[in-house]
Design a protein that fits this description.
Strand content: 5-15%
Distance between the termini: 89 Å
Shape: globular
Structural class: alpha/beta
Strand order of the largest sheet: 3-2-1-4-5
Helix content: 55-70%
Oligomer: single chain
Amino acid sequence: MERDVLSRVDAARRLHARGLAANESGHPLRAARLLSRALDVAGLASDDTEDRLVVTTQIVITLANAEFELYGFDPAMARLDSAATGLTSLQVSVHNQRGLFLLRAGRAIDALQEFDEAARWFADAPVRERCRVLLNRGAVHLDRGALRSARADLAQCADLAGSAGLAALTFKALHNLGYLEFLRGDLPLALRLIAEANRLDVDVSRGILLLDYARVLMEAGLARAADRTLAEAGAIFRRDRLAQDLAESELERARCALIGGDVAAARRFAGRARDRFRRRGNDRWRRTCELVRIQGDLAAGRPASRLVEPARRLRDELDRGGLHLSARAAGLVAAEAYLALGQPGSAAEIVASLGPGSRHDPITARLQARHVHAQLDAARGQVRAAYGQIRTGLNELARYQASFGSIDLQTAAAVHGRRLAEFGLSLALQSRRPTEVFAAAERARAVSTRLPVVRPPEDPETAELLADLRQTVESLRAATQDRTASAPLVRRRRDLELAITARGWTLAGGGAARPTAQLGEVRAEVVATNATMVMFAEIVGTMHAVAIRNGRLRLHELGNAAAVTEQVRRIRADLDVLAQPRLPGGLSAAVRSSFERSAAELDRALLAPLHLNGERLVVVSTGILGQLPWGTLPSLRGVPVVVAPSATAWLAAIQTPARRRKLQIFAVAGPDLVRANHEVVGVAAAWGTVVTHTGEAAARPAVAKAMARGSVVH
């Protein structure tokens, strides 16, 4: 009889170990089936020895965890309440699991009390259980914004788990430390820690890691990359029936859609997530979904009168739930709605009730507050104060961008300042003063053009990836005619490109942003170079231009921006067709005629109102006009034209040569180019000391050497 009891307890223990592994790997359905069998087997052992009670309680705790993922809070807590609570050796496990459920249900304060109680029993607990408590308590501190306490718990967990060879818990601790850095605002370090966790060879579901990785990408402004990552995470959660995590991924996809301007998708994803949270009885997360939906309503132009009361009510609910940052966001939505209704007094009352924000708030929250304060100041007639809010907000964004070592991230982060920059432009246009429009347009451009000069990477890992990529590209060139051989090389090239991009995201920047150029400096340089500068800007659907000629500024309204955009797209499409070498004569003539018509229409729309006289021209433009081949417009043929993304960039470029170190210039005459040799001679004449390669000397090794050593390669 005793042998039978022991064999059943051992069998239950083995099933529990398998169920525990399935749970920790993120497979709750598989875990629940194994653990239910384990509980049945343990129940057949009628002897009430401590060993049987310990095993049974361990099974119940782990099964409750699986059932939480599958069925929600109440069934899981009911299961946990059935566990034996008088066993000293399992006090840590019971309190830890109870705290985890409370945390996942949004009851962070209650959860923290359970984890603190579990920590009181550490002396009797194995390393694995201590690590679990530290991991979960660290998550509570993260949730409450107590980052110092969170770091202490998570770092201790990572050290203990690493020393004990507990790879899964090391993975989770590093992952959460990465999320902590995300909350601190150090996005490159956050991405680096999450990537370090992901490199660990451990059988753990990557769903939660992908979810948090996407959150970091989204905060950086990489909404598309974040959405792709969230879709991958969502597929894992759906497969493993992780309803809570699936709802969280849908909520984040709603935020991605909102950043990208797809309000319909934002409402759809937020609605799905809200319904899932509601079914699970999770009001805290449900309210967060409501916030995203109401932000979408505001962006879509829903009548402000229908937004005020829901936004105010949501602000109060979020504040009572301890979600103070989200409550602040809801209050700012209410303030914007009041401003749209022409009630600045009510808006001011709401803003005053929110109190000052923190410099540690996410950049999105800080820029939203700046935007609302700027609108409020403008509505009161305090235009200077409104400009001050806009300048301060965009400068904060510039410092945020400078913290990244990746140009990809720096550029993507500009999306967060779009609304603030656009409001600054519309405010400047109301003044009808060209100096104000020039300054506002330059501030708007600065968020995406104050980028560092591209230099070879100092990061060894990136340099190694780039070397591998170059070798792969060379091999691909040699195999272009062999489809079977080239297919794996194409995949390898794509994988390397993605790896280089992701590695770049993890590198920190210098932390300093280049200031925008002052109008006086720009005007003086334009006069000194005997040029005319034209800065184009789209403001509220209309194209405008500020022209600087002979030291004087003039503002011109040029017409519908959508029509201009369409003409630029036609020109680019026509040029793509004309670039084909074997185009039939009749088709070539038709396309060239279309191109000439579009070029003439653009010339009339953009340049004729400016009354240019063939003088040297500096065009400042980004977006669609930055893609226009300006020299093809009829009035600019034969006219020297410089195109710059901003006046600041142009001024820096034109003033740099006097301070520049000695350059190594290479000019290479490529094959099948009719006037290549003539062009190389012209480059040499323009630059002075130039290394030239023509004819047979312009082979691949010479080009590779030039690319490796040259400051400028033509």
